[in-house]
Amino acid sequence: MLKTRQLLGKYRIERKLAEGGFATVYQAFDTIEGIHVALKAPHPTHVTEQVLSDFRREVRLLTRLDHPNILALKDASFIENHFVIVYPLGERTLSDRLRSRMSLSTILGLSEQMLEAAAYAHSQKIIHCDIKPENMLLFSGCVLKLADFGIAKVAQKTVRGAGTGTIGYMAPEQAMGKPSFRSDVFSLGLIMYRMLSGHWPEYPYDWPGPGITRLRKRVTPEFIEFLKRATDPRPRGRFRDAIHMYNVFRRVRLGVLRKEQTKLTAPRNLLRYKAA
Asked: What is the reported pLDDT for 162?
């Protein structure tokens, strides 16, 4: 366990942000660059030669991903016998943001960013395998960055012994050890459904899910069909990848924006009618 104000190389530990079975995450200050960062320190008992080999492979994979909505890795190295992974520090996670209400425009903006990130990864032939609100960091200006490419998989293999993904967010076939691009599509669909309806769909993912009444009030039938397809329990019923999903999203969101605009202008039109 690292201590507050402890200096680890150029990083000064400021406070603990989170702790899990695999690692502890700290807020730290980079005394050279003069910026705050997130520093993840795996528990020493988990830092084996096999884990380090997996990390090297995943870090090299991550360097291939250059996109504004994918969290960049700043550092991964041994510092004073501590293995640390360093990232830019976000303001909070999407999971934190979900605790308060969001406007429709905010939801659509965040949805577009997470879809862009996943679509780019899929274009590079990379499946994330652990898409969830905790792995989406929000920065100033409501900028979303998808995090933990590969790092989460290494952690889960180490702590649980086998399998990847997080129960409650992953597709049925992924839970059986058969992830694909369509599995990421399923996770993205679940998150978007939660943001719009206020409810998490649960296994066996029967349609319609909880919160469907609120969903129908907020979006169009075409958008509901889009979400239904994304969260189809059968892989073949979904979009083939996040690229396909993103392209359809860009089309169906226009109808939602038009519906929202109509709702906003309706009271004004009614006042004009009464005045006449």
From this structure: 39
CATH class as words, domain 7-88: alpha beta
Helices (H), 9-84: 49-62
**pTM summary value:** 0.87
Catalytic residue numbers read: 130
Strands 35-42 and 75-79: unpaired
**Residue 141 buriedness (CB in 10 A; 0-12 / 13-18 / 19+):** exposed
78-132 residue pLDDT tens: 899 888 889 999 999 999 999 999 999 999 999 999 999 999 999 988 888 889 9
pLDDT computed for residue 76 by the predictor = 85
Q: Give me the helices (H) in 176-241, please.
A: 181-197, 212-218, 221-230
Superfamily grouping for domain 94-263: Transferase(Phosphotransferase) domain 1 (1.10.510.10)
Mean pLDDT over 172-194 rounds to: 93
- For the chain, the structural domain boundaries read 7-88, 94-263
**For 230-251, what is the mean pLDDT?**
97
- CA atoms of 77 and 68, how far apart (whole Å): 24
